[in-house]
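Example 3.2
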Amino acid sequence: MDINQYLVLAIFASTIAALVFTDKRPSFIFASSLLALLASQQLVISDIIRNFTNQGLITLILLLLVSSAVDKTSLIKRLGRTLVTANFKTSFWRLFSITFASSALLNNTAIVASLIGPVKQNQYHHASRLLIPLSYAAILGGTVTLIGTSTNLIVDSFLIEHGHPGFNFWDFTLYGLVAGLSCGLLMFLMTPFLPLIENKNNQYNSYFLEADVAPNSELVGKTVEQNHLRNLPELFLIEVSRDGKLISPVNPDFVIRGGDKLIFTGNVQNVDNLSHIKGLDLFAESDGLFRENLTEVIISNRAPIIGQTLKALGFRALFDAAVVAIRRDGESLSGKLGEIKLQAGDFLLLATGPDFTQRHNLTKNFFILSEKKMATKLTKRQEWITFGGFLLTVALAATEVLNLATGLLFFMAVLVMNGVTSNNEIKRNIPLNLIIVIVGALSLATALEKSGLIREIMNALYPWASTVSPFWALVAVYLLTLILTELVTNNAAAALMFPFAYGMVEALGVPLMPFALAVAFAASASFISPYGYQTNLLVFSASNYKFSHFIKFGLPISLCYSSIVLALLKYSYAL
């Protein structure tokens, strides 16, 4: 090997070592690798720019941006409240089915993030018996279609770069469905082996908020338990105000009536879960001010409003703002929100009008602390446009009527024009760290091929490869990718292993497709480590799991999944 190949090999090895043995962010490590490749003249700027404009990367970014808009719809949140019942079997299969199916089309990380709250807050079962299956169901569902997980799109972009037409939308479906459903059944049989862990308490400031039940609300005539009001993530129903009387505590069999005022306490960042319940209006919504940006203030010690209620003050007219929620440290609040007497030091979360910042009485009453970003409720028309438009875009791509990236781009324009999302929101949601990881991994893969290092390695391996069947070469590629995805990240594993898989195909003269599928499926098969896949990390952080819990539960799942995928690839391509 020449000096350039040794340099590329050193950078490659250093990148893997840094990902495995340091706590640096993957984006920092890959950015450093990128700079090292440029500094050592193994790549030029045009190589980097080409990777930034990679079709798979652009499709992935558009898909993530669209998924964040689809996540605003009420569907997942409404389903989340009804998932967990007293029957564990029913709860498990509801959770698995919804997560598996939705992850085939939507961003599986967003699905898991939306469902963690209802699972943690359920009143019937230890969340630790459901959270790992939730993550694994999302991983398995992501392998069913081309757009189910980012690794599929990354491998697809490599195929296109090497002159292959790329994957079809349904190329993954047979393997993903058979392996996914089989692993789902195995997970259900293994749930008794999951630990029984008390729920982890998240740290947040508990606010006091009020919501009115409209006469035609979907809640009317049903009990608290039937309405699943005890499954709201980090929001707790503590009182009901009815006909001027406060009812507390609120029993599960308490029947909701029109005109009731429901008093909640909890994490105000999850208030959008209330706004998705039909006929339940937050205090600020009645003033027409509830919107995406909420302002948090604290009442000053010399404020003229101290000792008065929101109702008596005419708060809306006085400040061009409505109070969404209130928090008083060291004291539990009770009663209607509009009738609580304000005190110095109270924290208020305000939905503000256009004249709020111009009011001269602000500094006399408040210290303004911060703005909070809240997910705003979509209108019925916006929900239909968002969900219907997404399904139409996917259907056109699946039937090869329209290129997926083109369809997503036009769909994004439709979302902006209809106010579902905005230019500022798109800028905030651009996954910069993920882009750096993928571009860094693609660039490292480019350097491996451009320097001839892949060719040298394949020449060294050819005596071994020529003595084994193509299937065992496929198994070797699969296992190396599987090990790498458990140690680093799924996207990095896919990008770094594809050049080696392609080199193996060139050396053996065998079809490329089964090896490309093997890399894609293996890169998604992170069942043993909580750090190899984002959904695993989410549930790991949400509970008090130990690393050993993932190993004990995940190893049989990994063996089942891998055996099925490899067997199907062997017989599908007669290897």
